[in-house]
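Practice problem. Given the sequence and the SMILES for pyridoxal-5'-phosphate, write out the predicted structure.
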Amino acid sequence: MTHDEARGLFPVLEHAAYLNAGTFGPLARATADAIAKQARRDVEHGRSGKPYFDEMLATRSDVRDRIARLLGTIADRVAVTSSTTDGCNIVLAGLDLRPEDEIVTTDAEHFGLAGPVFASGATVRVARASTMSGEPLLDAIVAEVTPRTRLLAVSHVLWRTGAVLDVHELKARTGLAVLVDGAQSVGAIPVDVGALDFYTVSGQKWLCGPDSTGALYVADPDALRVARPSYFAQESFEPGGRFVAKPGAQRFDSGWTSLATLKGLAAALSLGPEWGYERIAELAARCRDALNGVVTAPDQAGLVTFEPDGDAEQVAARLLEQDVVVRNLPGTPWVRASCGWWNDESDLERLARGVRGP
Ligand SMILES: Cc1ncc(COP(=O)(O)O)c(C=O)c1O
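Answer key:
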């Protein structure tokens, strides 16, 4: 696939400089077609019967396999969820932490991770690291570790500054259980779960999947309690009696995801070209060069955050009027651009021109 062919997969790029995969990736025509085709079948033929159910299970299994390959693991360690937030909640609820247990996190986390962390019942220690990157970021997190630390809960790529945290080094240095929020990493940079314990995936961002899709990697499924069992958690169930959990991480699958959505996600997961990560890094570097006031350090992931002249919210709104899609980051003077493998230099030029103003 060439760069132009990749771009041609996404109708929105025919008119917009769409630079917001950090929120929602662009939808490919093939993804939308897969969803629409299944939705039409549901309308015309109903949503029942063994063949229908078997097809749903097979598509779920296909999605699980594809995500496992993406994370460098096996399907048995992957749960199909509805979001990163969902994955974080599954982990935090299942660990049964108490006030005497500590979680170390940072003040740079998205609510999708921070919410479940603060609701967990554990004591939370927060590394003040919101503008850090590289070694100082790592050091600030390690400095909060105490003998009571039960979990480190951090993002692989920080959603505001775009900084990449060396999560493997964090694991190696502490030996503690690590929950990684992968919302801004999976699909944007190569990911290998390696020795990490829990890793979340958002389907709708850098993987360009439908809304409400995601996954959760669990290194040792037997060591995490099934705190929120869905239909898919049960291997067997005796009414009024015992429930035997499915083997592997399937037991953590969230509830029903429509067959149309699963088909759309499977289609989206087959899009990424071999050169995708390299191209993202190249475009992010060009994006940094094209803008003033860049906050993101060089050589991070696909997010490039900058401080424009003027109010960030108004700048983002003005850009949207010009069909340049980025977002401002509430509570900061910053605007964030997301550079995907589907973008090209013309999108970055439109962004730079739009930011400079008339
Ligand atoms: C770092 C980070 N974590 C979590 C989320 C929430 O993702 P989801 O909607 O998949 O729960 C986001 C979304 O913007 C994010 O940037």
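Check your answer against the key. The two ends are 37 Å apart (CA to CA).
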